[in-house]
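=== RUN LOG ===
request id: a7f3
mode: sequence -> structure
chains: 1
length: 166
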Amino acid sequence: MVNVFAKVEKSERNTKYGEEKSTEGQKYDTVDDTGLPTSTAGGNKGDIECYEQQNGILVEVTMAVGRTQTMMEVWPIERHLIDFQKQQKSQCIFIAPSIYSDSERQIQFIAYTSKRENIIRPFTIEDLISYLERSHLLFDYSYRSEADEEMDRLQTTLIAADPPQI
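=== RESULT ===
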């Protein structure tokens, strides 16, 4: 198995001038002897920024599960995605060992209130591996959550129903 955390390029931000320069060639280990990360991403921005054609994919990774996942991850991820979208059309891939049900509901709420502008696609690690094996793109133009499908079914049912007689 390849450890994707073993070698990561560093970048330095000149906060005085708002410029960022790549420090290619400077590598550092960020994992322990079992292959798990030993530090977290800096605050106020996403963990990993990917660029694919004209689109951006913000990748947010956490080991948090349960209620902590919702409280500590979902709302900051939305803020990071909104900032990232200022550069290009973007989505977010959220990766966790498991996706807590409240996190899923918050992610659906974010999509609904943003009129589907802020798309966060939650994946367990196994689900992401499966997705990557069958897809050649990270950005998913056709992404629809289970909540989207349910809303379509509900609207179809309401339209098909006879209006009440007054």
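=== NOTES ===
The radius of gyration is 19 Å.
The domain at 41-160 is CATH 3.40.91.50 (Restriction Endonuclease).
=== END ===
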